Amino acid sequence: MKVYGVTGWKNAGKTTMVERLVREFRARGLRVSTLKHSHHGFDIDHEGKDSFRHRAAGAGEVIVASGRRVAQITELEEALPLEALLARLGPCDMVLIEGWKRDSHPKIEVHRGEKGGGLIAEEDPTIRAVASDVALDIDRPVMDLNDIPAIADFILADPAR
After folding, report:
1. What is the pTM of this model?
2. pLDDT, tens digit, for every residue of 5-37?
3. How far apart are CA 6 and CA 25, in angstroms?
4. Can you tell me the distance from the alpha carbon of 112 to that of 130, in angstroms, rounded to the nearest whole number?
5. CA 83, CA 40: separation in Å to the nearest integer?
6. When you count CB atoms within 10 A of the terminal residue's CB, does the N or C end of the chain come out lower?
7. Going along the chain, which residue ranges are E strands?
């Protein structure tokens, strides 16, 4: 399984890039999974739902399953490292990671000129390329932000895991 990150500053378009890459890799016949980091608390079930009631009663883990989907909710004492989360994934060809910008996996940075701010890549050797809507002077490949096939080709050709 190839693991590749999509990183960038807030509102740079990371989620849009992940969505577009998932569609591109799926169109090429690859099985794709994603991991998304959230700095804020989040909940996938809501008050009044049975799974919420199970957790509210004190269950440390709750699995909700149907014939088409399964979700596992685990209450944690501390955050799991990225490697532990990757180990929870089922078999796939590609894992795209949004967030975890300081971890050691290879990444592509999404950069938009209108947002300003410096490049993370200037300080981070794990960023292998930058997808941008403006020309950049950097020691890594710079690709057109909207050329998803070229970005996908770059990711697939990168020898990193």
Report:
1. 0.89
2. 999 998 999 999 999 999 999 999 999 999 998
3. 14
4. 10
5. 20
6. C
7. 2-7, 32-36, 61-65, 70-74, 94-98, 107-111, 127-132, 142-144
Rounded Cα–Cα distance for residues 110 and 151 (Å): 11
Distance of alpha carbon 103 from alpha carbon 51, whole angstroms: 32
Q: Counting beta carbons within 10 angstroms of the beta carbon of residue 127, is it exposed (0 to 12), middle (13 to 18) or buried (19 or more)?
A: buried
DSSP-derived 3-state class of residue 146? coil
Spatial distance between the Cα atoms of 18 and 110, rounded to a whole number of angstroms: 10
Tell me, what's the pLDDT at 134? 95
On the question of pLDDT at 137 being above 70, the answer is yes
For helices 148-157 and 14-27, the axis angle rounded to 10 degrees is 80
Tell me the two tokens of residue 46.
């809501």
What is the distance in angstroms between the CA of the first residue and the CA of the last residue of the chain? 7
